[in-house]
Write a structure and sequence with these properties.
Layout: E1 12-18, E2 25-31, E3 39-44, E4 47-55, E5 67-71, H1 74-101, E6 106-111, E7 119-124, H2 132-142, E8 146-150, H3 153-160, H4 184-189, H5 214-217, E9 229-232, E10 235-243, E11 248-253, E12 258-262, H6 263-268
Parallel strand pairs: 7-8
Antiparallel strand pairs: 1-2, 1-4, 3-4, 3-5, 6-7, 9-10, 10-11, 11-12
Helix pairs in contact: 1-2
Length: 287
């Protein structure tokens, strides 16, 4: 069968893979000869799948339910391409039936594992959908096991891919490993305009990139408050602003001199905020 056998002393490692249907990542044990960019055949709860190895020789945590079978061969790619064309036909068929039945669901993708264990229909919907009649119709026409999977809107964009307002492919469809919680407080912390609509992604949720630098801005909780005065090297300065790109604080003296000190320099001089709520630019409320 070619299944990885750890009982016979075969050298193994954990590799990171990406699924072709969802664009999601996972990890599993594989022989040490498997390397990055290899395509391998695995067994998952969906059936036998052709997946790409995106990283190897890393200290990953193995995910349960995935089994390495063997390295992919030419026939596997032929079967995969054949199933892609077949899935496109089923996508059109299902969309027509959805329209006929008047179901409120957005069909995104159809996926057929290599061993044809089932046909998976991925869709999004605002509420629960009664698709029992749809499944009956599809089963008669396709004559395979039908599985309907409702996914979230963020998962949908990750699956299909889209171009964000930045002009680049959405992070979730390229490199994002998992979805982090993104909240309005991240907009506030980064001194961005308080208009969440401007920071809404293709999926209708707040953009994932808001979380990338959020941790950096938490440093403001320890910086001297805006408009407060501090003494540095025997000179009294007024805090004028923060520059998180350069990681420094800008000051002005009573003589009109403008200087800046890096966060590290201020920390070295023992200049940190003594009080403050930590949720604004420096109210000094002491909460």
């Amino acid at each position: 069968m070619g299944i990885l056998d750890t009982d016979v002393g075969q050298d193994i490692k954990v590799v990171k893979i990406r699924f072709p249907d969802t664009n999601k990542f996972s990890q599993l044990k594989a022989p040490t000869f498997i390397k990055k960019d290899d395509f391998i055949l695995i067994e998952s709860e969906k059936g036998q799948e052709l997946v790409k190895v995106v990283e190897s020789n890393e200290d990953f945590e193995e995910m349960e339910g995935l089994v390495f079978l063997r390295k992919a061969n030419r026939d596997d790619f032929k079967t995969f391409d054949k199933h892609l064309k077949e899935a496109e036909k089923y996508l059109i068929l299902c969309k027509e039936e959805i329209k006929t039945l008047g179901l409120k669901m957005n069909l995104l993708k159809v996926y057929i594992p290599l061993n044809r264990s089932k046909v998976i229909f991925y869709y999004t919907a605002e509420s629960r959908v009664d698709f029992r009649e749809l499944v009956k119709i599809l089963a008669k026409k396709i004559r395979m096991r039908i599985e309907m999977r409702q996914i979230g809107v963020r998962d949908g964009v990750q699956m299909i891919g889209a171009v964000g307002v930045c002009g680049q492919q959405c992070c979730c469809a390229t490199f994002l490993d998992k979805f982090d919680t993104v909240g309005v407080e991240m907009i506030q912390r980064q001194n961005l305009p308080p208009t969440p609509a401007k920071f809404t992604g293709i999926c209708g949720r707040l953009m994932c990139c808001l979380s990338y630098e959020s941790e950096t801005y938490s440093m403001r909780d320890f910086l001297p408050e805006i408009d407060s005065t501090v003494e540095i090297d025997s000179v009294v300065y007024t805090v004028k602003g923060y520059d998180f790109i350069r990681e420094c604080v800008e000051f002005s003296s009573s003589e009109g001199d403008h200087v800046s000190f890096t966060f590290d320099e201020l920390e070295g001089k023992g200049i940190v905020r003594k009080s403050g709520c930590g949720s604004c630019s420096g109210c000094g409320c002491g909460k």
